């Protein structure tokens, strides 16, 4: 039970808090710079694909919502759209930055190269085809629902008579920062370590033992050098989110942080994280996950591609968890990242099912090719 609490429950709480803090900071930046992406894209037509790729790399749905909106309003072409959808991993980007920041940057770089390349190819192929998406039936993005843009100029006026919600938020962030600074976060951050040790001890074949030992050595080497950056990242994020919580006006706190970030994201992030970690914990206890995956790699790849089709954040977390446990190769995780786009493409499905399925088809072919090549 103690092992389950450490490996699953504690990690779920910490990951959920980290992800919510990242979403809160990005929500602040997004509202603060509202309309900037649209204006910049209109002024720099030749850089649309690169800009769309950068928007896709932004964790969460904001960058994809923006690119889809620009496409449906005929500001950008299909090449920019496909580049954005390949680059994005939706809310899963938050999880990867939380659990494996160095590998997340590598995956992001690979996705960026693929996105830009495919984007320019798509632009060349479709340059004679007019965007037939219904521009008039535009949709409303969740972060632009306000009748006015809030004044986000930093102010400590809210601290003079803070609301209960602001106090709870600030205290929670401070607790998170203290845990980060004292090392509580990364002391429990290796929920996969015990699995590797157990597998090595119980393995009988010398060749496989040596392979496991090499993997274990690399794992501990990466963790040793990765602990400090992870702790620093936690502390910086805690500081940024504390700044947001302390200085934003009550309107932003209520509408964007409480109603959007917490009410819409908290339960989903917590439950999906808990489900994924609990599933892997149970599987590792009662079956040899690594042997099963190694014997069914092609089927796992097909599953990664199929689940990638789901326009929702959450189900894809299982592949991140499997990769962290050393149970699947990078190629399978990357294939899933290529195909999935969180829930950022749902507005595209609402606007044009044709372009939605064309984009998904291209990404499935690309993901399958990359996954097979890396296997």
Structure summary:
It is built from 18 helices and no strands.
Mind explaining what this structure looks like?
This protein has 375 residues and is mainly α. Helix content is 75%, strand content 0%. It contains 18 helices and no strands. The chain is flat, with a radius of gyration of 22 Å. The two termini are 36 Å apart. The model is unreliable at 135-148 and 187-226 (pLDDT under 50).
Content of β-strand: under 5%
Rg on CA atoms, Å: 22 Å
Q: Calculate the terminal CA-CA distance, rounded to whole Å.
A: 36 Å
Secondary structure: number of strands: 0
Helix % is over 70%
Biggest beta-sheet profile: none
Structural class given helices, strands, pairing? mainly alpha
Task: Give the overall pLDDT as a whole number.
Answer: 76
Helix-strand sequence: HHHHHHHHHHHHHHHHHH
* Poorly predicted runs: 135-148, 187-226
Overall shape:
flat
- Summed up, the helix count is 18
């Amino acid at each position: 039970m103690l092992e389950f609490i450490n490996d699953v429950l504690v990690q779920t709480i910490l990951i959920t808090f980290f992800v919510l803090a990242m979403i809160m900071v990005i929500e602040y930046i997004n509202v603060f710079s509202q309309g900037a992406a649209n204006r910049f894209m209109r002024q720099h037509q030749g850089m649309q694909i690169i800009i769309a790729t950068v928007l896709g790399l932004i964790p969460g749905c904001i960058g994809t919502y923006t690119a889809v909106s620009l496409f449906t309003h005929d500001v950008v072409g299909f090449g920019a759209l496909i580049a954005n959808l390949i680059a994005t991993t939706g809310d899963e980007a938050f999880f990867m930055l939380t659990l494996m920041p160095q590998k997340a940057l590598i995956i992001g770089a690979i996705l960026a190269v693929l996105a830009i390349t495919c984007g320019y190819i798509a632009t060349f192929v479709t340059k004679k085809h007019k965007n037939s998406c219904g521009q008039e039936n535009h949709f409303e993005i969740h972060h632009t629902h306000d009748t006015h843009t809030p004044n986000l100029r930093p102010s400590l006026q809210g601290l003079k008579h803070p609301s209960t919600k602001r106090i709870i938020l600030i205290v929670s962030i401070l607790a998170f920062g203290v845990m980060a600074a004292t090392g509580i976060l990364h002391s429990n951050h290796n929920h996969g370590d015990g699995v590797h040790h157990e597998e090595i001890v119980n393995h009988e074949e010398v060749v496989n033992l040596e392979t496991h030992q090499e993997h274990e050595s690399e794992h501990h080497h990466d963790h040793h050098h990765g602990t400090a950056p992870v702790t620093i990242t936690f502390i910086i994020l805690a500081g940024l989110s504390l700044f947001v919580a302390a200085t934003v006006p009550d309107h932003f706190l209520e509408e964007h942080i409480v109603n959007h970030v917490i009410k819409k994201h908290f339960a989903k992030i917590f439950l999906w994280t808990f489900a994924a970690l609990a599933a892997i914990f149970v599987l590792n206890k009662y079956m040899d996950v690594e042997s099963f995956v190694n014997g069914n790699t092609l089927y796992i790849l097909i599953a990664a591609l199929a689940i990638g089709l789901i326009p929702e954040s959450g189900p894809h977390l299982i592949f991140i968890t499997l990769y962290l446990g050393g149970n699947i190769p990078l190629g399978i995780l990357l294939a899933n990242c290529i195909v999935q786009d969180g829930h950022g493409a749902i507005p595209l499905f609402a606007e044009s099912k044709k372009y939605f399925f064309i984009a998904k088809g291209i990404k499935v072919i690309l993901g399958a090719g990359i996954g097979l090549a890396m296997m």
